[in-house]
Amino acid sequence: MVGDACATGLPSATADFVWGEDAWCYVPHKATLVAEAARLVRPAGTIAFTDWVEGPAELSEDEAQKTLALMNFQNVLDIPGYERLLESSGYDISVAEDTGRLASFFELSLKMIETQFTYDVLATMQFRADVLKVVTDNLRFLGEMARSRKMIQARFIAQRRA
Q1: What is the pLDDT of residue 73?
Q2: Would you state the pLDDT for residue 1?
Q3: What are phi and psi of 23, to 5 degrees?
Q4: Is position 11 within any domain?
Q5: Nearest of 103, 73, 102, 80 to residue 156 by alpha carbon
Q6: Residues 6 or more apart whose Cβ sits within 8 Å of residue 154
Q7: Where in the sequence is the domain holding 127, given as residue range(s)?
Q8: Could you report the per-residue pLDDT of 77-118, keeping only the tens digit for each?
Q9: Cα(98)–Cα(23) distance, rounded to whole angstroms?
Q10: What's the pLDDT tens digit per position in 9-19?
């Protein structure tokens, strides 16, 4: 089934909560997405999600272009950007914070590729070591963006005003 998170067609104010996990970064129209989530939730209901966002240490233009291309994101927000969207949709924010976990995702992926799944990853790349090097170099780059807090995973919890 294919759906559109920005236009679900679901009835308004019928959900107790809307939950997302590291996926809103793939949706180009963040304001429309938040408005749709807000529309679905009943008064006093909750929107809770994690997402990959620009961190407090801003990306340079080159870093932003490379990160967006590697992750296949059209754009990313930062924590204040999501806070503005939630508040303007009638929500009070109780949590808007860096989880501190994004760098570990890239570190774990690299460790698994380099120590446990090297053969499997190479097999999917027709045993092209040059392609594997590109993949691992890109994971290292993304890990550096996370370690330097230029990209973070943020957690948001917001309640709809009654």
Answers
A1: 96
A2: 64
A3: -130, -20
A4: no
A5: 80
A6: 50, 51, 52, 53, 79, 82, 96, 97, 98, 99
A7: 16-160
A8: 999 999 999 999 999 999 999 999 999 999 999 999 999 999
A9: 16
A10: 999 999 999 99
